[in-house]
Specification:
With about 190 residues, this protein is mostly beta strands. The protein folds into 2 domains: about 10-90, Pnp Oxidase, Chain A (Roll), CATH 2.30.110; about 100-190, predicted glycosyltransferase like domains (Thrombin, subunit H, Beta Barrel). It is built from 1 helix and 14 strands. Strand 1 and strand 2 form a beta hairpin.
């Protein structure tokens, strides 16, 4: 499949399986090669031959969302371009290093926020989207919270910080939480 990314379109490159860096698409080249503008931070000569994930958003008539594909870095030119070779066709993808798992795909889980029962909408190793059953007006954006997740196979206590808070059309309070870095929830959800 030929790439149909427009020149100057913002793209993201996942390097080393953990570092996401921003760039812009430059042009499609023959034989599944393409070029992007040099990234920030810069890709160096030691990145040549590395396999990376290239990701971009689409808002076309037939495709919506984020698409990505694997590519191998082939060269870095003196005119600030990075030449890559496309290894597979674009497909729907998740840019996150730790994808969010929706509640209907999770194992049996009970959750509480600040010792109050809550519903998990989705969760990853980095955070969660939750609905508070008991409205807690004291929890403000930026506040530190203590969370408890109980799975069939064990329990995890995590500290986090509220990033966003909103009410839905049913007047339920939703919160988006970022977890502290050291937690072991991944062994229960992935």
């Amino acid at each position: 499949m030929r790439l149909t990314i427009e020149p100057k379109k913002e793209i993201y490159v996942l390097v080393n399986g953990k570092n996401i860096i921003k760039s812009r698409f430059h042009q499609t080249l023959p034989n599944d090669f393409f070029s992007i503008e040099q990234t920030k931070p810069h890709l160096e000569e030691n990145h040549v031959n590395e396999i990376v994930l290239v990701s971009y958003s689409t808002n076309g008539e037939n495709k919506k969302g984020r698409f990505g594909f694997e590519a191998r870095i082939k060269a870095i030119t003196s005119d600030r371009l990075v030449i890559l070779h496309k290894l597979n066709d674009p497909a729907a993808c998740e840019l996150r290093s730790w994808p969010r798992i929706r509640h209907n795909l999770l194992p049996n889980i009970h959750a509480s926020c600040q010792k109050k029962e809550s519903q998990v909408v989705d969760v990853s190793c980095n955070g969660a989207h939750m609905i508070l059953y008991e409205s807690d007006t004291s929890s403000k954006i930026g506040a530190a919270v203590k969370l408890n997740f109980v799975f069939d196979d064990g329990e995890v206590n995590i500290e986090g910080q509220i990033l966003r808070k909103w009410k839905d059309s049913f007047h339920r309070t939703h919160i988006a939480i970022s977890f502290s870095e050291d937690n072991d929830i991944s062994r229960f959800i992935y």
